[in-house]
Amino acid sequence: MNRIQTLETRDLAKSIQTGGCGECQTSCQSACKTSCGVANQMCEHKNDEK
Amino acid sequence: MIHQYKLNGYNIVLDVFSGSVHVVDEVAYDVIGLYETTPADEIVARMLEKYADREDVTEADLRQCLADIAELEKAGKLFAKDIYGDMAFDFKKRVTEVKAMCLHVAHTCNLNCEYCFASQGNYHGERALMSFEVGKQALDFLVANSGKRRNLEVDFFGGEPLMNWDVVKQLVAYGRSLEEPNNKKFRFTLTTNGVLVDDEVIEFANKEMNNVVMSIDGRKEVHDRLRKNYAGQGSYDTIVPKFQKFAKARGNKEYYVRGTFTHNNVDFTNDIFHLADLGFDQLSMEPVVCAPGDPYALTEEDLPKIMEQYEILAKEMLRRESEGKGFTFYHYMIDLNHGPCIYKRISGCGSGTEYLAVTPWGELFPCHQFVGDPKYSMGNVWDGVTNTALRDEFKLCNAYARPGCKDCWAKLYCSGGCAANAYHATGSITGVYEYGCELFRKRMECAIMMKVAEAGMKK
């Protein structure tokens, strides 16, 4: 593709099948305590799938 | 849904529901912007007119660009549909297990920080220290209510938890004793203002605490203006050498140096860079949470300046990284390859369901920011969650339950945001704290841009 570059990312739709174990960190628990998000939380199974 | 933006010379297209990130040239940027609403022939005609002075923009090239977009759409990487809202997730009926707890081991503090959301540590109530018996019951409650979840998080919080240090150590030992028989693993965090940090605290914390959060606001004059002791003296000179020693001793273990910025230091990147120059390399800096009328509250006029600051921060972080002097910033730590699954992204922050705060007296609240508000009392560590109606309200507290999030491109990155911020801004936990949302979206734009830059993608 001449005009479009695509970054490799986790396929969120595919994670319907593979995700949901719930072992990941609770969003607000680590550093913020006042303005939470989930995007910076790590998946506990980071090496299992993409 | 897509989100298009330009930052640091990149034209970025985020495909919201697949999570795909594309970097495109300006022609493709325009074509993608028109793709869903405009017939192909019209797109071609408009682009040929707009880029009439460009030899590379031909009809054949534009048709190829449209074909590439169609291919990405077919692959589910562009214009992916929102299949999550329609999924058979019944949030209200789902069984939630408690997996994280904020233990308020000390509702008292040795600092008198003006902006403290915990009202100088006592959360608008009596000063108190948690007894070992209450903490022990809290850990028992956590284990008993955690189902099959193995990893359990416990944050020793306050007030200032080092004012109840012996109990913290006893509770760590007790928690460890529960691990093997129950097939659990505790991850402890200590959040401290640093005043009582000494070698013994450092040694114990480095052995037992997965994470340490050290509170410091940045430059001496900024920090000392609000973070004072009861004699009115700033705490910067006391805590900086202690935190430097603490952070160095952490080695590869996680820590955050966490600050708060206010209306007094809207140029907060200077505080972040100051902390980085002090040798800290895991940083977090949060917008103040306070009543709108407070003198240090962030204002509408501050908003564009803060947005600019986030851009300055992202660019400077990339520059420092390229020079081998990089540091992490909590809100820019986005992992596009191994980040959270869709369940995490649509289930909210977990407050009131997976995450609870415990007062020194064993009372349960949805999170640390609701402590002290009697309307949000949920039960206690002996009887468990008795206010199940409130728990059910929090189960619904996610991006799909908030009308204000419906058309927001960032909803799978914040999952609906902070219930406490929403409550304080709108009176409802499912409201939207728009000011915080604006900041959040800007941080996500910066974080994604940094990933693009780090991947070496062409501008």
From TrEMBL, chain A:
This is Putative ribosomally synthesized six-cysteine peptide SCIFF. The lineage of its organism: Bacteria, Bacillati, Bacillota, Clostridia, Eubacteriales. InterPro entries: Six-Cys_pep_SCIFF (IPR023975).
Automatic annotation (TrEMBL), chain B:
It comes from the Bacteria. Residues 95-328 form the Radical SAM core domain. CDD domains: Radical_SAM, SPASM_CteB-like. Its cofactor is [4Fe-4S] cluster. Pfam families: Radical_SAM (PF04055). The keyword 4Fe-4S applies. PANTHER family: ANAEROBIC SULFATASE-MATURATING ENZYME HOMOLOG ASLB-RELATED, RADICAL SAM DOMAIN PROTEIN. This is Radical SAM core domain-containing protein. It comes from Allofournierella massiliensis.
